[in-house]
Amino acid sequence: MLANHEAGFDVSSQGTSGVGGRGGIVTGCVIDGNVRDGLGIGNTPGPYAFRGNRISNNGRYGFWEHNLAGGDQESAADIVLESNDIRDNALDGVRIDADLRDPAVLGNRIRDNGRRAAPAASGGGDGVRFSRLSMIDENADWPPDGHRGKQLTVGTQHAVVTFNTETELRLAPVRPGARTAWIDGTPAPGSPYRLPGSPAPRAGTTTAATACGPHLHSNRIWDDQRPRTQTHALWITHAGSWKRGRVVGNDFRGNASAATRFDTAPVNGRWHDNES
Fold first, then answer.
1. Domain ranges (residues) in the chain
2. Residue 191 to residue 234: CA distance in whole angstroms
3. How far is C-alpha 134 from the geometric centre of its chain's CA atoms?
4. Widest CA span of the chain, in angstroms?
5. Cα distance between residue 64 and residue 230, in whole Å
6. Which residues contact 135 (CB under 8 A, 6 or more apart)?
7. Count of CB atoms within 10 A of residue 59's CB?
8. pLDDT tens, position by position, 53-66
């Protein structure tokens, strides 16, 4: 499931029926290099299981639980992430933006996410040139892949960055199958451009909705890059809540800022034998 314009694998209400799928299993797949998300899951009551996949190098989240407006909004039950390698994604490795009941995150290796860590940038003039699917600024010194997934703005045109080197941005086609990133034609050499900043935190696993009865067992969530870009192993945001969770036997050591960040404290549940 490679280099798709949105997600490598999507469950939502945006299909022709307007009804999200249910009862699926995805196993043994490579879900890599998609312009936005690796797995985008929502508008489903569940269950879904994702086992033994590599979910890597995607332009936003590795796994994103979210609901589109107009579709089923009930809590999804029995979403399972087991024994996956979730790494090198632009933002959070696992992001929960829709309510879940009894999810299980078991035995995964979640590492080196949050690659979109570069500050805002702008430029133009000498040394700046464009092609159908790239932009080069010879005067730049960007961190490799620090702009992945960002929107590049040149005049009234926008393009999405798929990856970058110190001086070059590679860009996604304007639509699937297109041979150019530019809807109104390739910009002239020297045209001014700008790139936005990067969000923070960028965690291995983030909960920004209500998770009831989650199990987080035997995962290793860390960053071994230099510099590190995955800020935390586990983040519960102000919008999130974690109720009756069981968090056992995880290794949270080696993230850029801290093992955990709780803007909302978890409620009840059991936490033990975690390395931090």
1. 7-115+201-272, 121-195
2. 41
3. 22
4. 59
5. 16
6. 128, 129, 152, 154, 159, 168, 169, 171, 193
7. 26
8. 999 999 999 999 99
